């Protein structure tokens, strides 16, 4: 008996040990992206989105949850917030109570009719298997809802109301204007603001400390500038640079950030405008050749040029409008498959004409 | 006997001739267990493929150089069979999915699935992923790119994708944000000159510096073209002299001549002749966007700035339309006709002004 107990004990010990080991091996096998690793674990961790956090906290304390529509620019924590809330609400049975569909899943009208409806029709009890109370509903998260077809959205309408006893919907999207009116009126809308510089820097600093990366102080600011208030992009960028520099005991500098992000240095825009002011076509041709050889993305160039032109102090409003008008057209044609060389030359000629008219 | 381009291609990241800092970064990257999807972008002849092969060698050792050709067949939803040539080793697979035309979506999805389904038997001591190199991703249809986006995430455990593109503008943002972008800028003139003389030294020839500079300029910072030109020069005249002529490409001369003819005379009869020449170019396999670029470059050479702007604007419009449609000659001809009209009008106006 004694021996049996003993052997039983040792075997369990072994098991736990081996399982630990295997999990360690597993973790080593697939190092998680930092974006996943540092996703907020609870609603309290979510920064800066006051109203929605307040509502979700109420719900965690037992209040009812409305249907939610979360919208805002990418990387502001929309998906993270709802996932964290769901995890806190349901604990271990989280997987059974959540149906998460995003744009990469098939989401036509048929899926809404079958998958969503079937899931919505299941009832949910008010207790967890371990006896603890939990809210008596399930949550369907429709991520990137603005890429759903209108037909699919329309099919949701009645389902949302009919199943409101057992199911809450949470739609997440970038552009609220692409969600049809009947849906928006059925949901409580929350707008997610772009994160402020300090908050992102704070988070990046935290990650750097955890991962023991040494980073110059101005680099944080650089990352934030490049990412434009997008937390996901900042963290991904940080990790990419870290990987590329080879990990340990290297300092990450501002130049690395610029290189990774594919952002075009400011001097190229100053140069472009100077050339256009001189009205010299041959120079423009040379400049375009140069920029294409440096392999900068022309799409990126157009994006940045738009900001540059609008904020430029010397151009008149009329010049700006003429340039931006053509900028839009060129950008469209470029995305549609037009040749980079011709589009940028066309834009250059327009700027030449615009600057010459005033003088 | 191999061409010099292949013979003297660097095989290791540490032996690359330029962008050394970037090469060091790539070495660092390959030494870590984790490896992201990569996207190499840059103009042609800048050395994207060379870097990819070097990186693969760094990852897997010399085994990647034992290449074999394979033809894979895919069945489209409409039950058509497409065959695609792939080049691969035990560790990687290289394919140009745009060969399949509008059926590229099937190729992308099936190929990645096919490769990703086989795990490494013994992951210790080896990488647990294979690499798929997709070239000319910017030529893929939007549909295929969206399909790629889903598959890239799904099979990340067993396969990594390296994309090789000329311009990132045509790659959808969703794919761009999933890859680590590696910018491969074209080598500078000085770097090309250095490489050319080094190559010639290896072939035990001496290349006069003037000739090297001349070739470098003529190659438009395209290293592959530069090396091919040197080899062509060697066939023409060896040993090299510093003032020997470098052979122009036939189609470039032809295109220049066409542009000159357009400038000389603007009439329907001429237009018909130009059409013949354009057909000739197209049937020789010169890509229509290259024709457009060449025409614009040559046409605007001796014009007033207003005509230049007008020409570029027209070219822009018709080139975009050509990408949408599938009969290239129409758009080329429309451009030429329109240019003739603009040019003639301008000349007439100028003459009228002179007379008064």
From TrEMBL, chain A:
Principal place of residence: nucleus
Subcellular location, record wording: Nucleus
Keyword DNA-binding: yes
InterPro entries noted in UniProt: AAA+_ATPase, ATPase_AAA_core, DNA_pol3_clamp-load_cplx_C, DNA_Rep/Repair_Clamp_Loader, P-loop_NTPase, Rep_factorC_C, RFC_lid
Superkingdom of the source species: Eukaryota
Ranges annotated as biased composition (Low complexity): 1-10
GO molecular function: ATP binding; ATP hydrolysis activity; DNA binding; DNA clamp loader activity
Keywords: ATP-binding, DNA replication, DNA-binding, Nucleotide-binding, Nucleus
Segments for region (Disordered): 1-33
Record SMART domains: AAA
Chain ranges of the AAA+ ATPase domain: 64-196
GO BP term (any one): DNA repair
Gene Ontology CC terms: DNA replication factor C complex; Elg1 RFC-like complex; nucleus
PANTHER family with a match to the protein in the record: REPLICATION FACTOR C / DNA POLYMERASE III GAMMA-TAU SUBUNIT (PTHR11669), REPLICATION FACTOR C SUBUNIT 4 (PTHR11669:SF20)
Protein family membership: Belongs to the activator 1 small subunits family.
Name of this protein: Replication factor C subunit 2
Gene source species: Pseudolycoriella hygida
UniProtKB/TrEMBL annotation, chain B:
GO BP annotations listed: DNA repair; DNA strand elongation involved in DNA replication
Pfam families membership: DNA_pol3_delta2 (PF13177), RCF1-5-like_lid (PF21960), RFC_C (PF22534)
Annotated GO CC locations: DNA replication factor C complex; nucleus
GO MF, any single term: DNA binding
Keyword Nucleus: yes
Primary localization class, coarse: nucleus
Keywords recorded for this protein, A-Z: DNA replication, Nucleus
Cell compartments where the protein resides: Nucleus
UniProt domain AAA+ ATPase: residue ranges: 34-190
Family stated for the protein in its record: Belongs to the activator 1 small subunits family.
Subunit structure: Subunit of the RFC complex, an heteropentameric complex consisting of a large subunit RFC1 and four small subunits RFC2, RFC3, RFC4 and RFC5; the RFC complex interacts with PCNA. Forms an heterotetrameric complex with RFC2, RFC4 and RFC5; this complex has ATPase activity but is not stimulated by PCNA. The heterotetramer of subunits RFC2, RFC3, RFC4 and RFC5 interacts with RAD17. Interacts with CNTD1; this interaction facilitates crossover formation.
Job of this protein: Subunit of the replication factor C (RFC) complex which acts during elongation of primed DNA templates by DNA polymerases delta and epsilon, and is necessary for ATP-dependent loading of proliferating cell nuclear antigen (PCNA) onto primed DNA.
Protein name: Replication factor C subunit 3
Species of the source: Pseudolycoriella hygida
Encoding gene, per UniProt annotation: Rfc3
